[in-house]
Amino acid sequence: MLDYTQETAISVWNRCLQFIKDNIDEQAFKTWFEPIVAIELTTENALYIQVPSKFFYEWLEEHYVKILKSALIKELGHNARLLYKI
Q1: With 90 as the cut, is the pLDDT of residue 70 above it?
Q2: Nearest Cα to 4, choosing from 84, 70, 75?
Q3: Beta bridge pairs of residue 50
């Protein structure tokens, strides 16, 4: 299991981004993933990310939820959760 004293939200999110970047179109990545900011990684395996707007959040949930879940599970395990701040 991960050692949370060494892991940071940013490093986990950056690894998630690399996985996502390898699996989607470059323009889509620039539009929908580059603006996201990792905020916090909790001891309960929840990664908080900040998105620019409610529309942005809804678009991610509608179009990219599977790849987001895959990336998070790859990095944090099956009990990982992604939480948004707008």
Answers
A1: yes
A2: 75
A3: 37, 85
Amino acid at 62: E
Give the pLDDT score at 16.
97
What length does the chain have?
Answer: 86
CA distances from 46 to 20, 27, 69, 78 (A): 18, 27, 12, 11
Pairing of strands 81-85, 46-50: parallel
pLDDT tens figures, 34-66: 999 999 999 889 999 999 999 999 999 999 999
What does residue 13 show for φ and ψ, rounded to 5 degrees? -65, -40
- Give the three-class secondary structure for 2: coil
